[in-house]
Write a structure and sequence with these properties.
elongated, mainly alpha, about 140 residues, Four Helix Bundle (Hemerythrin (Met), subunit A)
């Protein structure tokens, strides 16, 4: 059974970082591309939000006994297989997990135009993930 307290901590972490990112959406593209401080904040908040989603997805999958994800994004596919996430959302979250790997492992190779685009297009997917998890939690019995 999923540890609801741990899940809620991760959900709060996702929300906190998504709020930071939402606050950075007003930065004009040209300013973002020239401002390394803003780039750092956006990349770090993206990394933390995506990592929290990956961790939470893996926690759900293993605690529910649905398997052990081998790759970081695989837990999202397993959640879709078990009707927790829509398949389309699962695919987008797997892409976000791959993007998180780029942030962590190949920072110098990042295209900042892509980062800026994701800042404006991908945040709703993290919110949809959180909503799906909250829905699942609300339907799960509390441990006695």
């Amino acid at each position: 059974m999923v540890d609801k307290d741990l899940a809620r901590i991760r959900l709060t972490y996702i929300d906190t970082n998504v709020r930071i990112l939402e606050g950075k959406r007003a930065i004009p593209r040209e300013d973002f591309l020239e401002d390394t401080d803003q780039q750092y904040v956006v990349l770090h908040a993206m990394q933390l939000a995506i990592q929290a989603a990956i961790d939470l997805a893996a926690h759900f999958v293993t605690d529910e006994g649905w398997g052990v994800p081998v790759r970081s994004g695989q837990a999202f596919a397993i959640l879709a297989d078990n009707k927790v996430l829509a398949p389309e959302l699962s695919a987008r979250l797997r892409a976000m997990a791959s993007f998180r790997n780029l942030i962590v492992h190949e920072y110098g190779a990042l295209d900042l135009n892509v980062v800026y685009r994701l800042l404006h297009e991908s945040l709703p997917d993290l919110r949809l993930f959180a909503t799906a998890i909250e829905t699942f939690l609300s339907k799960s019995p509390d441990p006695e």
